Amino acid sequence: MNLSVHKKFEVDNPFCLFGGGAWQPGSEGWKLSERIGRMIANRGFTLVTGGYGGAMEAASKGAIEAGGEAVGILYAPPKVHKPNPHIDKFFVASDYTERMSMLLRVPRAIGLPGGSGTLAEIWSSIALVRRFEGRKFAIWEPFWQSRLGPMLDEFESISAGTVEWVASAEDVGEWLNHINLAI
Fold first, then answer.
1. Is 130 exposed, middle or buried (0-12, 13-18, 19+ CB in 10 A)?
2. Structure pTM?
3. What are phi and psi of 149, to 5 degrees?
4. Residue 96 falls within a domain, yes or no?
5. 97-126 pLDDT per residue, tens
6. Rounded Cα distance, 1 and 84, in Å
7. Nearest to 116, CA basis, from 124, 107, 106
């Protein structure tokens, strides 16, 4: 791994993936995230994740194997909390909230299954989509619909096409193709 640390967060054509850090290699979640990482890279996006394990590592592995670039945003120095081995470069935020702020600067993202950190990222992304034009965000329906759907139904101002529910890797591929056409 030839990592380089960068102080200023600048990435060409970024696409962020949010997802749980506990997924294990070979699990269904890992395979899904790895496949989505490949799809993101194959469409010319630079994958941006939190830089650690689970969904972040799997997606980074997929992006790198597809010939793309994977960037991690860490909240602790790499000697304290090691980044996953599949990222090209990383940025170190001063704390968790700065890390989340950096991840949320990416205008295109997908929220996969995860825990409280992923939920915070997803909910913040939804708020940004509601306030700023041009942001694209998809949510993994099989996991999040029962948890977030009722609350999202209350927000009439989320227009069609800004927040998408995706239920399969094929849905993700179609959504990514649509985003690529819009760029």
1. middle
2. 0.91
3. -50, -50
4. yes
5. 999 999 999 999 999 999 999 999 999 998
6. 10
7. 124
